[in-house]
Amino acid sequence: PLIVFLRKITGKIGRFFAETESGRVYTQFKLMDPNFNNASFTKHLREYVVPEILEAYIRGDEAVLKKWFSEAPFNVYAAQQKMFKEKAIFSEGRILDIRGVEIVSAKLLQPQDIPVLVVGCRAQEINVYKKIKTGEIAAGSEDNILMSSYAMVFTRDPEQIDDEETEGWKILEFVRGGSRQFT
User: Fold this and answer.
1) E strand or H helix that includes residue 171
2) pLDDT tens profile 69-79
3) With the C-alpha atoms ordered 53, 176, 146, 87, is the resulting torsion angle positive or negative?
4) Is the pTM higher than 0.85?
């Protein structure tokens, strides 16, 4: 009974001091890049990464998104853009403001324990689609401002850390959540 009691106590103490899943994620990113730190990465997301990605997403800039998106989200986006091209329309939307860029969670994706950071934000945007031939508005409105929510799942490719633009970061999932009229 004494041994069982001691095992229970040491088990509870061990779990108390065990590294959390978030801690393991940040440790893996630190092993890839010793200069990685959560605060500076969040600042980099706010000032550069998220604005570039959202602008490219709204404008239909496949070249920029190809650099950041992994294969699955890029294929979904490219299929959407192909539909617009078939209808002979193009996006002339724009991002007005981006708020609340933050790392929502850090997870290890199974089965390979891929470290990922889930990033969320809100953006004020105008979605306007124009006809290619005439330039007249086919959908949307210049004065219709929407507030949209976005979620992105980032991971880092250690073989591409030297890439000056992406620094090895890739988006595994990209979701545009609900949009509502901004007043």
Assistant:
1) strand 169-181
2) 999 999 988 88
3) positive
4) no
